[in-house]
Design goal:
Strand order of the largest sheet: 2-3-1-4
Order of helices and strands: EHEEHEHHHHHHH
Number of helices: 9
Helix content: 55-70%
Structural class: alpha+beta
CATH class of the largest domain: Mainly Alpha
């Protein structure tokens, strides 16, 4: 049985959700971002308890198809931007289409309708959050970060970074309180 969970953005989320399912006596067979597969369905009397347990950790059980699709899109983007060690030289529309086995035009219009923003803007926000993280680590030069994140050059990255944050990347590095967002708040 598959259950879809909103706001899963990292490996710690996977561990937390796994613990919730295990506490209810349903050992997951497989867990990935946004998806939990169990051998047996959770009994109806435990379903509300599952909802409340997940909500106490900031997660949400998703019932409707549109929300499931949106969450899958977000998880594909988060996985590719934040949890991929390869350089980001991908065509997102083709990649998302292949991962969800649905037409990108449909996915794009559904995402915009439900989220009030485009997939492209969501990708940019995720990439900028990743850039912030890399800047804070201070292990890569801005040129290396631009290359790693799939930007054609440093100027393009800096421009986009400033549009989103209001700061240049170098000014962001100098600010004592780097304001990064949790991925589920982007």
């Amino acid at each position: 049985m598959n259950y879809f969970v909103k706001n899963m953005v990292c490996n710690r989320c996977i561990m937390a959700v796994q613990q919730v399912f295990e506490k209810l006596g349903n050992q997951p067979v497989h867990i990935s971002l946004g998806n939990v597969e169990t051998k047996d369905p959770i009994p109806d009397n435990n379903l509300e308890l599952l909802r409340k347990s997940l909500e106490s950790y900031g997660f949400e059980l998703i019932d409707d198809t549109k929300s499931r699709i949106i969450e899958k899109i977000k998880n594909v983007i988060i996985q590719s931007v934040h949890h991929n060690n390869e350089d980001l030289k991908i065509n997102y529309s083709s990649y998302i289409e292949s991962q969800l086995n649905r037409d990108y035009t449909y996915l794009s219009s559904l995402f915009s309708e439900v989220e009030g923003t485009t997939i492209e803007k969501y990708i940019i926000l995720q990439k900028i959050e990743r850039v912030k993280e890399l800047l804070v680590y201070d292990e890569l030069t801005l040129s290396e970060i631009a290359y790693k994140m799939g930007y054609s050059n440093v100027a393009y990255l800096s421009n986009q970074f400033k549009k989103v944050t209001g700061l240049t990347p170098s000014h962001f590095k100098q600010v004592k309180e780097n304001k990064r967002k949790a991925l589920d708040e982007v």
